[in-house]
Amino acid sequence: MLSFDPIWLTLELAILTTFVLTLITIPISYWLTFSSFRYRFIIEAILNLPLVLPPTVLGFYLLLVFSPNHWFGGWIEKLFHFRIAFSFFGILIGSILFSLPFMLQALQVGFSSIPKTHINTAKVLGKSKLEILFRVILPNCKPAILAGMILTFAHTIGEFGVVLMIGGSIPGKTKVTSIAILEEVEAMNYHSAHIYASVLIVISMIVLLVLFRYKRSVSMVFAEKD
Fold it and tell me: Which segments constitute the ABC transmembrane type-1 domain (predicted)?
């Protein structure tokens, strides 16, 4: 019998990943865009490493770190009586790290597109960095933030390698839709695999339609202003 648990688990993972990344990448993108730190390009390269790394490589090293045999994973398990590997929390961490560059890139583009006159004017008026961020930068970066959220959500829905390496395939805990498709194909249950795949296609298409529709609306607004 076809289970819809992988679909709900996939949506939960995508929503939580998008939410967490939205919170943590705003201050990171702000610092990377406006900081004068000489070696920030090194930090930027490290944060964007998942873009070029195979998902299985990232998943493999995260699995080693989260394993009870590793000092970190063992310490977490002894302290909190909780094992990160092969848990939903584990695949959430992996998903956040793997999708981080997508949100980060979108926000950096948005932050760097803000005219410096806006920021300089706010400084002249005595606004603090925090006030500049919340009253000048973020209101002008809504399109970039939304684009980053949509891309992150869409990317997370299709994740496979990282999730499989860290979480395996535990029904109701780590078995997301992409893994369910693989297992159904291996079992030659093509009808079930088709249903799972079709759901992902529909969700992905809806997400992309929202993204491009919003981009078109924003472009029309700016065209009218010009």
Answer: 7-211
